[in-house]
Amino acid sequence: MKNKSLIFTIVAIALIGALIFVLNSYTKTAEPAPSKVENQTKSNSSNEVRKVGNEIGDIAPDFTLKDLNGNTVTLSSLRGKKVILNFWATTCPYCKIEMPALDKFIRAHKDDTVLLAIDLGENEAKVRQYLEGKGYQFTVLLDSDLSTAYDYKIQFIPVSYFIDKNGVIRAISNGAMTYDEIEEYYKALSE
Question: What pLDDT shows up at residue 82?
Answer without folding.
Answer: 97
